[in-house]
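Quick entry between incubations.
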Amino acid sequence: MSDLLAQAARKSTAAESDPIIPSADDEPLYESRREIYQQSVKGRLRTVKWVVLFACLGVYYFLPFLRWYRGPNQPDQAVLVDIANNRFYFFFIEIWPQEIYYFTGLLVMASLVLFLMNAVAGRVWCGYLCPQTVWTDLFTVVERWVEGDRRERMIADSKPMSVAKAGRKVLKHFLWLMIAWWTGGAWVLYFADAPTLVKDLATFQAPMVAYIWIGILTFTTYALAGLMKEQVCLYMCPWPRIQAALTDQYALNVTYRYDRGEPRMSMKTAARAREAEQPAGDCIDCHQCVVVCPTGVDIRDGAQLGCIQCGLCIDACNTVMAKVNRPLGLIAYDNDVNIDRRRQGLEEVYPIIRTRTVLYAAMIAAVGLVMLYGLVTRSFTEMSVLHDRNPLFVQLSDGSVRNSYTVRILNKRPLHRIFVLAVDNLPLARLSAVGITTTSGDWPVIDVGPDSTRELIVHVTAAKPADLPQSTRVTFRITELGTGEKASAVDHFISR
Amino acid sequence: MAVQPEIDPATGRTTTGHEWDGIKELNSPLPKWWLYIFYATIVWSIGYWVVYPAWPLVTNYTKGAFGYSSRQEVVRDLDALRALRAERSTALASTPLEEIARNPTLLTFALAQGKAAFGDNCAPCHGLSATGSRGFPNLRDDSWLWGGGIQDIHQTIAYGVRTADDRSRQGVMPALGGPNGVLKTDEIVTVANYVRSLSGQSTRPGADLAKGKELFIANCAACHGEDGRGNRDLGAPNLTGHNWVYGSDEKTIIETITQGRGAVMPGWAGRLDETTVKALAVYVHALGGGQ
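Done. Structure below.
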């Protein structure tokens, strides 16, 4: 206690005399957001971004309406996650819950593709494909359309609120909310028949969960793409942190070629310097690369966490370089290796084929081939057998022994099918299935509905267990009547 | 007095002034909205106090604006479950026992319900796997005291064995031994050896099987039949098979003849609803022994 008092006393005197202890207002622990007024830009990469944006959003918003005929009484939606019936439909593929490993494969491939993109050209994902980027881009266009470009927005924001200004703000947020609402609406369409659900939603007949999800997605889209924007990339997203650990010196990143750009100076100073044969960089310090940046970073500071590498600064700088008659590409997809090589007068190198790119590509191919093999050889008839654990066998009054099994037959075709169930490798065995009275020969005949499974309790009785080993490996088989399509499963018969 | 914060030469960023072994911490301020979200969670928690039961009082607790309780939630869930099952429960109740197995949906439903009810009500005596134990019949084999047809099974479950209910299974194995017994001790041993011979088991050397048969026909055949195959109307077991409720060794058979047997199984019609009893009958019938 006395220690604490002494400490407090020291502190109070120190605050007056000792200048080393900073007070709280010197260094804020929390940073206010710096408003980013992104300026519009034209150029090659901007065009690429538009194409990607329209392609991605087009797929997202309209894919649920694409039809795909699968047969009578089957959903005809090309992409459908049918949670109620435990099915996932993707064009000609139908996935059952136990085949969820296809998703594992897809996720593995997705991350490997992400790594490969990163090894080749840095944060291509962040700059062009990430939903956060795509929707933020869309929201920024709407903002520009309603409130004007960078300069108009900055002027308007510096003025006091007026009716016209308020009107524009309200219109902007309204349009944002509409886009967000449509985004949420498109999301739920992947989980039910889209045309039906649209009609149900419009007439307030849709299930509550659909409205709730639309509400959630509306909120997240509006908040993340409209209000948070670059804050998501700077503070919330884990990928920049992971990405930094995965990159290497040859990865092409959006790079300010400071070997060419420095020392930066105004055009006039540069012209004078060049006349005097003094060093003069190409960068005229016009800040165009900064004002077009969606995250507000200065690319001339080098590769940094805030840079999503969308390449808009490349477009902006090229526009300026063309105007001042200097070579294009002061900012370009490049790396520090080449900057060093140019300084030493060496030729630039762009080794796309490197250990990591080859390895990533090989791994993608391997996972893809495994998945393709699985998909091509995928069976439409399957069965599984589970031996009763307790009891393992039952002795009957005449001395014969019976084992019981749970047999499940999977019919993955959209047709009603009839199977004969039999057991091999067991002499003098009788097989019966609870609830099945039809037989073919001595074997039960089982009908299984279209695209469904049937579970049966099956009893196998062996007349002379004394002749059998303690445990016999037996094979259960199903054979479809007509087509002869087969499936089998191995289990054991316990005789004593 | 205000001090200029120290600038880290490598990054050009300010430091917090904290230093560990010469390594200084850069100042990376959190975004303000992060702080506001923290405040928002505090406000949210106040909402929780208002809406949900939250504060313990001396003899009570704050109930919350909507009177939520987890007990009510369970009741609601169970009601919802019943409502969900209603359609199939009704179908199960109205379908005759023999026809249930022919309807795959109804069979699956009855088996699931039967399995759960069996575990809750029958397993203490018959075992979780229905294999029984000494004195409690195995329900998986083909030996039935009172019949293995689904109607027989249903009747046994519904009204029990040797209960006060008129519809219950009646019939006892009387004690034939003892001081006032019909049979003397040596006669019982003789009969017991004859009974063992019926199922092909070894007999005591020198046992008079002819005498045993004579005694058996005189005293036992009324219920068990002259061939010893039993009588399901009386619950008299088949003595020629491999399966024995109490055991087939000489000592046990002697004990059975001497003391008699009269085990009781309670009737379930009054304790379980009719649908559950039906589901139990379907389940037991499907275990393998059903006839």
